[in-house]
Every structure is written in C-alpha cells, then in structure tokens.
C-alpha cells in the first residue's frame, strides 16, 4: 500500500513535459569575468521534449555587442531528461572608467517558475577605487563602535587606489541605515557639512580626511572656529545620559571618475550608559549646583529635571518635573527646597527640543539620600533596636534621628519643635543602623515616628549635629507596645481585667503586676489576644499600688528579668471591708471598732461601731459561756458530751429503799423534772455507761431508777452524769425559772442584731464572734478547771500525800506472798475513809478508794503503801461490808498476836486480793494456769500460816468459786504443811476459838449444813470450770470437799459451845451460887447440843 501511494504521488508530481526556470533570480559578475554561465533547470515534469528561448528584457541597461554577447540562446531537453542546462554569456572588458552598475535582465519564454534573471555587471576600476578607512580599521568589513564625545581626530579617511586615470570627486552625505535605530542629527550629533567636494586630479592618489571629530561648546560650534578645509566635514557627537542601544550614524558617498569601494559608512555609537555625560551628585536637604559645561545645552534652551527624559515629560511636566535655567557659567542652581520634592536616586537634566518634539538627557543627577519607604520597628523594653536603611550615598556619613516629625526647612532653635534626642549610626559590620539611645525610644509612647535623615558634607562643613539639619524624611519607625494605662482601682481577691491599647500587640506578650516600681518580680496575667489581660480572683491577693509591667519575648528578651520589662502604668488594688493595705497585704484593722480611712491605708475609730461592739461582745460572751458550760470535751471516750454533773455520792437512803444520787454542788435542773441520764466514771458496773431514769428531788439530789422505774442498789462516790442535748438546755435552768435554752438564744440574737445596727462587716462580726467564743472557752475552761473536788476525791488526794511521805518511791514486787498488807495499813485506810465507806463493801472500796489511790503508780495497794511478807491469807466475799471485814480481821489479828496491843496485832500481814492484786493487771494476776495465779502463789509461798475466811451470817463467800479454790488449796496445805490452819472469822470473833455470838455461829452452821460447794458461781465461766476440775482432781467429788468444810466448821462450833458453856457457868456461879449454876448450866448445855 505504501509503494502504491508513493507511485501515485510521483506520477502526479512528474507527469507532463514540465517547464524551464532560472536557478536563482539574481547574479552578479565583475566586468572582467569574461565568460559566465547562467544555470537553467527543468521542473514540473520530464515527459516528452522541452524547448526554451532566453531573450534580453527591454529593461536592461547594458548594451549587447559593446558590453556583452549571447551564446546558446536555445535550450532543449529530451524525454525523461532533467539535467540542468546553462546559457553562456560573454562580458566585454574595456579601458573606459565606468562608475555605475550595468544591469542585464534575461527572460525565459516557456516558464512557470523563475522566468526573469537580473545579471549585475559591476563597475570597472579604470579611474581607480576610492577606499575609506578609520585609522587602521577597514570600514568595509565591520561597523566600528564610536564613543560619545570622542576627542578631536579624523573619523573617516578617503584614498584613491589602484588606478588614477582622470579626475575623481567625492561628496559625503547622509544615508538611511539598515538598522532600526539611527542617531538623531541635531540631538545625538551635530554635522558641519563641507562646502565643496574632495577632488583628486589625474594621477593623484593621496589619502584625505573627509570627516573630522571636533571638540567645542555649543556656542562656538562653527567652521570658522574649527579651521576646517572647505572640502572637509566636521562632526560633534554629544555626550548624554540617554540609554542608547545600537544607535547608528550612516554616511553615504557620491563619486565621479572613480569607483567607490563602498557606497556608505556606518558607525555604531558606543553608548556610555547613563553615566556617559557625567554625574552631578546632589544630597537631599542641601542646595545643589549642577555644571553643564561641555554638554549639549545652552542658556536659551528649555531644561527640566525629570526621572524619565522623554518628550512627554517636556510637554506635560509629568513626574514632578521642574523647569530650570542656566547662568552665564552654564551652571544650574537647584535649591534645597526643590530637592525636597525629589525622590532619591537618578534624575536627569533634560533638554527639550520643542520643534523636533524630542528630548535629550544631557546630564545624570545622582540625588543621594534615603528612600522614603524605610520602615523600622522597635519593641518597648528591648535593649536594642536597629533597622536597614535603603539609601544612596556613603552610609558611613549618614545619620538618622528619630523624631515625632521631621523639622521643616527653615526651622531653627526658636521654633516650637519636639526633639526625642534619639539618633542612629551606621554599623558597617551588620549593614544596619543602630539606635544609640534605644531606651529613650522604647520608653516613649508606642506608635509611628519619623526617621529623619542627614548626611555629613566635609566640603560645606555640615556635620549633622543640629537637629534642624534632619529635614529629610527617610521613613517611619514603629514602636510596638502598649500605650500607658490610666490609673485603675480594683478590689483585692476579685478578678482583674486590664485592657491595653497599643501597636502590634500579640498573644505572646507578657504582662505582670509588680509590687516594686522597677518591675522586679511580679504575678503574671493571662491573655488570648495581647489586648485584654486577666487575673483570677485567687491570684489577686496583693494589695496597694502595683506597677503594670509589659514585655515581649523574643531574641532580645526572655521576659524573666526586670530589665526586660517596661513600666506602662499603675493600678490600685484596694482592700475591702475592714482591711487596710500593709506592705502589699490586706490586714484587718487592729481593733474591731476601727474602720479603714478613705485612702485604705490606715484605720480610724468608728464611735457607733465601738459602742455596738461592746454591747454585742457582752451579750455574745454571756450566750457562749452559758452554752459552753453545757458542753464537755475530754481525752477519753466519750470525747464530746453535754454538761457533766459531777457526783458526790450514790447510795441507798432511808427506809423507802430509794437510790439517791447527790451532785457535787447545785445541779441547776428543774426540781420535779424526770429525764434520762447517762452515768460515767463511777467504776460501778450497774452505773457506768448505763442509761438511768433520774427524778430531781432538790438542788443537790436526784433519785435513780432503771429505765423501767424499778429500784436497784449501787454505791459510788465518783463519776458524773450527763443529759441529752435537748434535756441539757430544756431542763437546765438559771435564775430559778428561766430555761437555759432561752438564756442562750436571747443574748446571741441580741448580739447579732446590734452587729447589724453597728454596720459591722461579716468578716469582722465573724472574728468578734470567734473571739468571744474563744473567750467563753477560756472562761469555761478556767471555771471548770477550778471545780471543787468531791469529799472523797479530796480525801484521796490527802491520803496520797500522806503515802508520798511514808513511801515516796513505791515499786513493784513479785506476786504472791511478798505482796501482803499489814493490819496497820488496813485500819489506817478504814479510819481515813470511814465517813465515805459507811456500810459499803469491797465493791465500793476498790473502784472508789483503792484504784484512785494507786492510779498514779498503777501498782497494787500493798506495793503503794509498802508490801510485807504474808502471814495469813484472807478469803472473803466482796459484798461483805468493809467495816465488818475490818472487824473480822481485827478479831483474827488480836487472837493470832495473843494480845490486844495495837503495835503487836497491827503488825500482822495479810494477803487480801483487793489490796494485794494489781487491779490494773488482773489477767496477769490470774495467770495462765491456777498455779500461776497470785492466789495460789500466796497460799503456797511457804510462809503463809493459814487461811482466814471472813464469814457473814449467810456464809456468802462459800457461794463464790474462787473462795472454793482458796478452800481447796487450804485443805491441801493443811495436809502437806504442818501448822497450816483454816480460821472462820466473824466481826464478833474467830469461830475456831469460840469467839462469836451463838446466834451468828448457829446461823452459819445451819447454812453450811445444807450448802453444796458445787453451786458456787464465778464471773467467768472458764474460771468456774477450772476450779471445778481442780476439785474433782483433788477431792474426787464435791461431796468430799463439802464434808471437809463441814468437819472444819463443826470443830469450830464445838469450840464455840465450850466457850459459851464456860462463860455461862461463870455467869451463873456469880449470880446464884455455885451449885445452882452448875445444874442450870448442865441443863442449858444439854439443850444447846440438842439444837446443834
């Protein structure tokens, strides 16, 4: 397919005979070329035969036969022949000088292509050739560069060479250059034309200068002043400040009698740039003298200064142009005021050609100074400030001064003008201008200031030391930061909000409040925008005048030191209420009757408040004292309770069998009222911690029952009782009939009302209330600490004082037989506390006397008074009246001593559990086993001579398990230890010796007869089980120990019988006579034995 397409295209292009055409439209030959060939081509096809004739066109200037001859005018191509053909042309050379060009035009009669050919035959050189040179440079080869304003010299030389037949002439004239930009005559250059041609006579071949560069001012630019020959041309190429790109000077030549080597010569102006005409340097702020000597300008010319020298600037005076005039010295004086309206940089002295409507920049004026768009920024408080100054000139000679506004031209020291006194000098190492006194700027108000410029001029003596030399505006300086704040007042401990106005504030700015004028230390405020700063109420705790300090963090400031901060104002933080400022803190006025002075710095007395507070304090004190007297606080539980009414005594009174509690002093309770009370510290198990019902009998006494109103028995001379809170204030009374609750509420309400009348602030009222409350606490504390002691407590204190003299340093001793107490100490205790003991038992003696006496040393009573080696072991029941106990011991001691002399029988030592056991270490006294108990150790001490059982008429001790234990050990010791005995002691005597009343002895006998020790009880079931086990182990059964007990008692009763019989016999003998007495006594004895 591709081959087919190619064949079709070939057939379309080459089908047919085609046509003949010249290969080129133009050919050029010199006259001396002789034979030349003109090529002809066959185009458009090659089928068949093609013939073409070449003829001379009628437009030809060359003559056939004299100047040329044709050969082969017919051209022929055969079928498929496409080789080129040639037409032969013979050129005829002669000796005649021909200076013009001859043209021969050939035409083809059968052509659709190039059918005409121009053959140019160049002139001959029979009259010679005129060549042109510029120094050694051949102008025909290049277009030389010609500088503006060349020195006087020949620009173009003409020389006749080769032949010199005949006369040759040469004229210089202008021509059109092939370049687009041509130099303008009269503007870029001035030409002095020759008045006659250059002539070379026959045979002359010398070189001649036909164009001479001249050097002159405009005023003397004429031929007479230049001494030019009449055939020589003169030219002045003016220096200017225009930028000219490839401007060309073109000169053409006309010659006769000779051939021209070139018909024209072109120069390309070598543009020297805007500095080609020189530079006039002017400085802003100073007048300037511009010298135009030697430039293309005269006194009558219209001259302007402009940024762009164009005809439009001349026609419309655009770009703030000003028309100037030269003086007789060809200089222009430009006043400083005119230069103030010119921007820094390149200006041009522009000559306006009104007729030509052209303009020429004859001189560049370099106006040195700053550009007005310079912008610097400084920050308040930063130690340094600098900026880059865009300006022309030597910056080392330039100065910048920061002013509110630059002074105007003509101002002097008498003018009303504000000078900040801040200058900036150039730093060559950074190419920046540094403010010399930056603190002066940064301590002014923020905003825009003018940068005023001045340049030193050694020629005029200008040193820029006077502020009025800084009249040139170089730009603006912006001082960033806040404006000064107007003084504001805030209340302490309230949220602060400070609104700033200023320049370029940011959220990164730091604002803090300082107590010191120099911004040392401070509390930071918070911001989201840089314009509004806040501080929470909790942080606003410093009162008084405070300095508002501002800082911007950056390269020059970390906002951590006082030097980084700028003081921008003051705020006053006032204390509120009755507080005044003292060294940055709000302190309350020293006295509650004082109020702050108007300035908030000192206090002064307020008479109304002073009177009100006095009355208020009295009422509040009364209320608080009455209330606090009803409240008790202690270290031991309960730690908090209502008023404790101390107990003088608790005992059963009268025949009505009622339990009466007597208070220590008046109890101030309604007589006849009945309420629940709770007792503490009595050391009685039926009273302590129990709630009992109390009925007020009189000012000192209350009747106690259980909660059901039933009578019960208890003895105590210690402790206290309390009422419920409601009962305390309702049943309590003062002034006989007014409830205590009313006496507490009324003074408090009165004090609160007076506080409102006196306009006492809440904080002060609270302080006063607290003060009066503390005062009431002190009054109550002092009063309660001086509460009088009960009679028993006073006796305990006295007894302890006596013991401190007798045994100042009591110490513990081993348990057992070495911890006995003498009868002397026993009866000494009884006699000392007899008024309180009355008919009470050991249940009263231990908690009310023994423990208070031993509390300080926490020893047993025996150790406190001085322990002794045991002689006898006392087995007793705690419920036995203590006076009966002491009587029983006395009877036994006298019997054992064999005399009733006190010194003898009181020296006998007894081991009594109440006095020999340490009541603070009962567990230790009981021991881990019965053999480790103090009871066992005392009995088995080896020195104990026997056991004295204290018997009452009911033989109550034998109903207790521990007494059974003591009996068991006694029975065992009787078997193991000779001389160890068991005595039955009563208040009337020792049964073993018959020293007891018959009624008591017989009553004991009757009880023991039916008693089974197996029924004995104990507080602890474990103790009971342990003792029963021992009995069974030792005796085999309770029946055996019961029998042993009966045997011992029977023996004692026989002693009693014998003693009674003996006593009756003696009595009867004394009354009736001996015989009758014997008979009666025999009868009585028989009756007595019968009863037993």
TrEMBL record:
Keyword line: Membrane, Signal, Transmembrane, Transmembrane helix
Bilayer-spanning residue ranges: 729-750, 762-782
Keyword Membrane found: yes
This protein's record includes keyword Membrane: yes
Signal peptide range: 1-20
Protein name as it appears in the record: Uncharacterized protein
Protein's organism: Effrenium voratum
